[in-house]
Structure formats: structure tokens, C-alpha cells
Amino acid sequence: MTNPYVPLLFFLAIGGGFAIFSVAIAPLTGPKRYNRAKMDAYECGIQPSPQAEGGGRVPIKYFLTAMLFIIFDVESVFLYPFAVAFGGLGLFALVEMVLFILTVFVAYAYVWRRGGLDWD
Amino acid sequence: MTGTAEAVTFWILGSLSVLSALGLLFARKAVHAALGVAFTMAILGIFYIGQGAPFLGVVQMFVYSGAVMMLFLFVVMLIGVDSSDSLVETLKGQRWLTLLLSLGLGALLIGMIGRITVTGTPNLNAINASPGNISAMAEVIFGKYVWVFEITSALLITAALGAMVLAHRERMGEKPNQREWARRRFQRGEFVSGLPAPGVYARHNAVDTPALLPDGTPTELSVSRTLQARDQVARPGLFSAAEHDPHQEIEEGSAR
Amino acid sequence: MTTLLPTAFTVAEINYWAILPVLIVFGGALIGVLVDAFAPRSSRHSIQVALALLTIAASFGALVWKAVDNKGATLDGAMIIDGPALFMQGSVLLLSFLSVLLMAEKFSSAGADAFTPMGAAVPGSPLEAAATRAGWGTSEVFPLALFSVAGMMIFPAAGDLLVMFVALEVLSLPLYLLTGLARRRRLLSQEAALKYFLLGSFSSAFFLFGSALLFGYAGSVKFSALSQAITTAPADVEGLLLPGVLLVLVGLLFKVGAVPFHQWTPDVYQGAPSPITGFMAACTKLAAFGAILRLAYTGIDADRWDWRMGVAAIAALTMIVGSVLSVTQTDIKRLLAYSSVAHAGFILVGVLAFDATGVSGVMFYVLAYGLATIAAFGIVALVREGSAEASHIAQWSGLGKRHPVVAGIFALLLLTFAGIPLTSGFTAKFAAFAPAIAHGGTTLAVLVVIGVLCSLVTAFVYVRVIVLMYFSEAQGEVRALNPSVLTTVGLAVAVILTVALGVFPAPVLDLANQASQFIR
After folding, report:
1. Which of B202, C121, C140, C159 is the most exposed place for a label (fewest CB within 10 A)?
2. Tell me: the pLDDT tens digits for C231-272?
3. C11/A60 touch (CB, cutoff 8 Å), yes or no
4. Which fold has domain B1-81?
5. How distant, in Å, are the alpha carbons of A56, B50, C412, C492 from that of C405?
6. What are the transmembrane regions (chain A) (predicted)?
């Protein structure tokens, strides 16, 4: 019997090895010729500033998005076992799940109508 | 029984998780500390799967590493904590008191829980074999805990309402559309054809490169007000300096 | 040990009539969220108020009409609809109905007067001023309050630790939010919300940890299984029982504001909008004592000799700290907060009686206290200097001469809190203390003595406020606003019921006695 961990380990070793190899080989083999333009931001990128405004705070709008993401993330945690075991659960579980999703979508409708999804 | 492969996985991932957990303690930037926690959580998820609890493992990845830690990161970024913040304790002796109380609680819990005796090796094999790990979970969620499951939705709605009420500034009035903007420009009679676009140079074109007027001076109208306020407008000279002085360029290169 | 997992999937038996009151409140809250999403801004306030009142009334109707005849465990024991649960649910509905009436008060504002026009605006910013001018309001408070009510209805009826925990969160989360939405003194309100949230999550974590230990002990989260496990005493996991019980109790005692878990109370009571403070003080205390009764009488009663002394000590501390600190308060809302801490201690004495009469005494007490509290915070919201609430006690001096009715009602409520005979406070204290003496032995007799002494201390505090209102000169421009019809009705009902419970307590006492039997 093959231990189920063996392929996992192989995968880990190959993946890690490839990543380390790729990163390590570039500075060893690549030509190094200095040009000031190489230090610039790429064509249409703006110059990075040394210190972001307000100590690097991000606007509160991102928080709203993160919060909404978590709400639907938690919803999908319930969807996962439901989907796996659906065959054995029957109509009752389907009804309960639909009720749950509808309830959460009430929140979604509220956020959408109140402009929580607009970015302006 | 612990097989060789399991032991190897444990030692590799275990040491990684301890390292990243130490990162939480010793990282100087709060964001790095949060990332360390996220990494530890992810490794814990792998351990759960290895122990025969795939549901727990997936949820650990999904909710902890995916969602909760991201929220943590957001909060850290929102309040902009960095190493310049003072770490001096405001309440004197609080650290020692905390240590004392924590040790006391630890001793109490260890003392009480240490009295427990466990017979045999507990494992999930029986449950994983007959209904299956995730199916068994589904059966309790939609069976005896269906009420808990349904009222959890109230928590999610409350969270959405709360995020909106506390963090969402609704627009006062309609957002002006293109038509409205055009109307306003014509009414005022200035910038009738719109504001000038940012400058396009041979080596660079970005929102921070100002357009040049016929006499060669940059015009501020072509760059967003936000960038001006942050003093992030690029100087046009920056992109032509190399052509003016190729010798300096060569010197700088060989100095590296 | 019961098996953790069923062998084949079985659908839980659901008695829909028994849980109909809760389902109605949930439905009303959901419709409220949809109203906020789709109704035009100008009509939101009126629709929400009407919807909330209708929902609570309908739920009460369903409770009286159907749920009382459908007692028993349902949802596989997740909900236990028995006498105490029904009494608590009915009381929560009554008290929250009155609270919603007070929350709806607009005075001259376009939206509800107590709540900020835009919670997300920076306090004092031009955006906030613009939102006030535009007549915006936070109509979300009504669906949030309904969600909280639903949680409060599940809390005392929970049949297992898991439902109890989720109910605790369902009732708490909206309260954290509502605390932070005061229209005036926004920073204080936001600070209060943050403190409440942090300490509340902390106590929830205690509850959860304790539940995990008890689950490990009994192999089930059900109270019936826990009670059974204690009597059969599985020796190998015995070490899990006491820490589990204590941690779960910490989580619950936090909610009632018992010392040393009371630190949030004064700040939150002061910072929250006054109608919310009333709602929170009355309904949360009621629901949390319902849950404590459920846990103490049906879950961990067999083990009570291990933890009873600890809770008795907490009760004594709560009474002493609450009443002594109320002497030093200069803010009327903080004074009422410390008085609520002291009352939590008095009620705990009744809980420790471990007799059906103790259950009915506690239930009567929380109802009587809730009615008086909602009315008291309703009055606090009326007394203003400028547009802000005159919350400093010195500002209340001479109120009796300017506004005899308002001051008279407030004096009556203070006397009720003090427990002067012929007020509901006296009857309630008697109902809670008598079973403690009859069934509690020396420990509880000592507690009752402490309780009576502390009542005297608090009586001194209340009488001082009354003297200030009637026998000192008025200063400043303090006046009482004229409430709208809804508020007047809410206040009047609360005051009349408070008086009625003092003068003719017999019907409600009888009802509480009939409803004092737990179903395990």
C-alpha cells in the first residue's frame, strides 16, 4: 500500500524546488547592464512615493468590500457540505438551504440598493 | 500509527508553522505579523486534512486564512499601524499582572483538564468510513442543528447592515454623468473640450506625468488633484536626463 | 455517552406553532431590511416604525394564541418552549414594543431624534451637517432592534449550548451597532460601542470555551444530556465540568452586568442613545436572566454545590459595588447604570433559591425592573438643555417646579427602583428574596441581608435626586420636550404598568407562578 503522503511530499518537493530554482537561476545567468530607464516604473506606472499618504492607510471602502466578502464566504461554508451530501438529504435540506440563501440575499439587496457596491 | 511520510510532513510543516508563528511575535510591521498568522493558519488546515478531518481543514483554509485573516489585514491597513507607534504600556504593571493571571488560568485549566483519562487512540476512522466526513457534517447541520444554521443567517444580515451603517457614506444627491459634466463646462465657459490629458513622453506616459505647454512648462491641469496634493507629480526632466548626460549614465552603471 | 452522529439522516421534528413568535419577528426584521433597501427615503421612518410595532404585536398574538398550547421541546430539543420561556418571550415582546415607541420619537428632526442621520460620517463633519439638513435618518435601527428581539426570544428558550451561543450573538451584535448610533455626543457613543463590542466578544469567547469543555464532558451540548451526565458522573472526564460551568457562567453574567463583569455597563449606558439604553437595560437583562435560569435549573443544577458559592459571592459583590458606586455618580445615565448593576445582584439572589418560587420571583423582578427602566430612560431622553440631553445630575435641579409631571413620573420611577412599599420594586424584591430565605439556607439569608442594606444605600441615592428635583433652585435652560403621541403612549403604558405591578401584583405574580415549571 502506498502511503498517501508520498505523492504529497513529492509534489511539495517538486513545487518548492522549481520555485527556488527559477528565482536562483535568473541573477546567476542574466546579463547585468545598468540603465537608468530600467530603474523607472514601467511605461504607464506612476513613480512610487517613499511614504504613502496618512501612514499607508487604505480607505474604509475596502473594509466594506472585505466584510461583504466574508459574509458570502461564510455562506459558502454551509453550501459545501450541503452540496457534497445533497443526495442523502432530500427536500427538507433543499428548502432550508434556499431559505438561508434568500435571507442572506436580503442583505445583498440592501447593500446593492444603498450603493454599497458602487465605487465612487 | 505515524508513518515515515507523515512524520516528514509533520516536521517540515510543523517547523514552518512555528517559524511563521514566531513571525507574529517578532515582526516589526503589523502587516507582516498578520501574514505570519495567515500562513500558520493555512498550515494548520493541512494538518487537519492529514488527521482525517477534511471539512475542518477546508474551512480552516477558507474562513481563517481566506477571510478572517484578510479582514485582519484590512483592519491593520485601515488604521495604518506601523513600527513608529509607541509600544509603551499606558497602564503600569499591566504586563506583569497579565502574565500572572494568564499563568494562573493556565495552571487552573491544566490542573483540571489534566485529570482526564483517555482510553485508546481517538480517531475519526469510523465516522469517515460510514457517512463520510463532510456528509456527516451535512447531516448534523440539516438535522439536529438546523435551527442554529437558520438563525446564523440573522448574524450575517446584521453584519452586512452594520458594515453599511458604520462604514458606507451614501452620496448626497445624484452622481453627475458625462452629459451633466459637459453641460456644466459649457455653462461656465471654461475647459469646454475637457481638461488636458496627462503628457505622453518618449519613455513614459502615466497619470503622474504632466502635459507640457508650448513653452515647455508643465501644466497642473493635466494631473489629478490627489497626486498634486500628495506631491507625487513627476518632473518632466526626469525622463530626459539620461539623454543629456550619457557619460554620467555609464559611470553610474560601472559603479554598481 | 450519546452517539455524536446519526447513522442515517433524519429531519428534526418541528412544531411550527411553538416557534411561530420567533419566526414572525425574524420575518418582520427581514421585511424591514427590504424596506430600507427599496422604499423611498422620505417614507422609510414611518414604514419601519409601523412594521416593527406590527411585527411585535403579531408575534405577541401568536404567542398568546398558539404557542402557549404547544409547550414542549421542538427542533430536536434545540428550542424548549415551556412556562419560563413563554413568560420571558412575552415580556421581551411587551418591553420591546414600548422601546420601539420611544425609539420612534422624532421631536423636530426629520428622522428619529435619538439616532444619527449618517453613522458613517465623521462626527462634526460637513457631511454630517448636510445629512442632518437633508433630513436623513438611520431607519436601519428598527430592523436591527427586531433582530435583537428575535435573539432575546431564543436565548431563554434555548435547549442546548450551541443555540444559546448563537442567540447570544444574534441579540448582541445589533446592540453593539445601535450603541454607536447616537445623534449627539457621537464620539462618546462610538467609544461606547467599541468598548461594548470588544468586551462582549471577549465574554462570548468565554462562553464558547466553556461550552466546548462541557461538550467534552457530556458528549452533547444539550442541557438535558449535560444534566444526565452530571448525575451519572463520568469519572474520567470529570475535570472538564467545573471549568466549563464557570466559563459559561462568566459569559452569561457579563450580559446581566454582574461584578466583576460589569465594567462595560456605565460607559455603554451613558454613550448609547437613551431609548436604546432603556431597551438594552430592560430586555437584555430579562433575556440573559432567562438564559441563566435555564442553564442553572435544567443544565447544571445537579452540580450546583460546586458553583453555588461562587455565584453567591458574585451576587454579593454585585449588590455592594453597584449600590456603593451609584452614590458617587454625577451623570444620570451612569447612575441608572450602576443601579442596574445593583439590581442584577438582587435578581441573582433569587436565581440561587433553586425553587419554582425563585423562578417566578426572578421573572416578576425582571419584568417590573424592565418596565421601570424603559420609562426612566424615556424620561431622560425628554429632559434637555439646548438640544442635548441634560444628563448631568446638577442640571436636573428644580425640574419639579418647571415640569411637575415629568419630574413626578421620574420620582415615582426612582422610588420603584429603590423598592419603596406599594411600588413594583418592593413586590419584585420581595418575590426574589422570599424564596431565597425559604430555600437557600444561611448563605442566601446573608445575601438577603446584604441586599436589604444595599437597597437602603441606593434608596439614599434616589432620594437625593428627588430632593434635588424638588427642593433646589433651577439653573440654566433645562426643559422637558413635549413628546409625540407614540412616545406619550409608550411612557404612559410603562408607568401605568409599573404602578399596577406595585398596587395589584397578584395577577402577574400568579401568571409567573403558573409559568415557573421548566421542561427538561
Report:
1. B202
2. 887 777 788 888 899 999 999 999 998 988 999 999 999 999
3. no
4. Four Helix Bundle (Hemerythrin (Met), subunit A) (1.20.120)
5. 56, 72, 10, 12
6. 6-29, 62-83, 89-111
Output the nine-digit C-alpha cell for C8. Answer: 442515517
Helix (H, G, I), strand (E, B) or coil at C516: coil
Mutation for testing the B interface, residue in C25, C154, C166 having most B CBs under 10 Å: C166
The answer to the question of residue A6 being in a domain is no
Whether A12 is covered by a domain: the verdict is: no
Q: Which residues pair with C81 in a beta bridge?
A: C72
Mutate to test the interface with A, among C13, C22, C34 (most CBs of A within 10 A): C34
pTM summary value: 0.88
ipTM above 0.85, yes or no: yes
Orientation of helix C141-154 relative to helix C16-38, angle to 10°? 160
Place of cell 436601519: C140
Residues of B in contact with A44 (CB under 8 A): 204-207
* Chain C residues inside the 8 Å CB shell of B157: 29-30, 33, 147
* Domain range annotation of chain C: 16-514
Closest approach of C279 to chain A, Cα-based (Å):
24
- Residue A59 contacts C where some CB pair is shorter than 8 Å: no
CA angle C464, C468, C471 (to 5 degrees): 120
Domains in chain B: boundaries: 1-81, 132-167, 198-255
C-chain residue closest to B119, CA distance? C236
What is the number of residues in chain A?
120
pLDDT in tens, B113-167: 787 777 777 777 777 777 788 888 888 888 889 999 999 999 999 999 999 998 8
Could you tell me which of C451, C362, B208 has the C-alpha nearest to residue A43? B208
SS3 C322: helix
**A24 touching B (Cβ < 8 Å):** no
Question: What DSSP string runs through C265-291?
Answer: HHHHHHHS-HHHHHHIIIIIHHHHHHH
Confidence of residue C114 (pLDDT cuts 50, 70, 90): confident
Asked whether residue A30 is domain-assigned, the answer is no
Identify whether the C-beta of residue B249 lies closer than 8 Å to the C-beta of residue B242: yes
Do residues A72 and A103 make contact, with C-beta atoms less than 8 angstroms apart?
Answer: no
CA C423 to each of CA B114, B196, C498: distance values in angstroms, whole numbers, following the listed order = 52, 78, 7
Residue in the block written with cell 439653573: C475
Mean pLDDT is lowest, of B136-140, B149-153, C342-346, C491-495, for B136-140
Inspect the interface and report whether the beta carbons of A110 and C36 lie closer than 8 Å.
yes
Return the bridge partners of B218, or none: B212
Nearest chain B Cα distance for residue A16, angstroms: 12
DSSP-derived secondary structure letter, C113:
T
- In sequence order, the β-bridge partners of residue C385 are C388, C478
Residue written as cell 460620517? C121
Task: Test B160 with A8 for CB contact under 8 angstroms.
Answer: no
Task: Summarize pLDDT for B175-187 with one digit per residue, the tens.
Answer: 888 898 889 889 9
Give the pLDDT score at C147: 95
User: Nearest Cβ partner of A116 from B50, B58, B168?
Assistant: B168
Amino acid in position B173: G
With an 8 Å Cβ cutoff, is A119 touching chain B?
no
CB atoms within 10 A of CB A80: 16
Q: Whose grid coordinates read 535568473?
A: A26
Of C496, C327, C293, the C-alpha closest to C409 is C496
Domain region containing A87? 53-120
Residues of A in contact with B167 (CB under 8 A): 60-61, 63-64, 67
Cβ(C443)–Cβ(C314) under 8 Å?
A: no
Q: Give the total number of structural domains in chain A.
A: 1
Q: Which helix (H) or strand (E) holds C478?
A: strand C478-480
B115 vs C: CB within 8 A:
yes
Cα–Cα distance, C61 to C55 (Å, whole number): 10
- Does residue A31 fall inside a structural domain? no
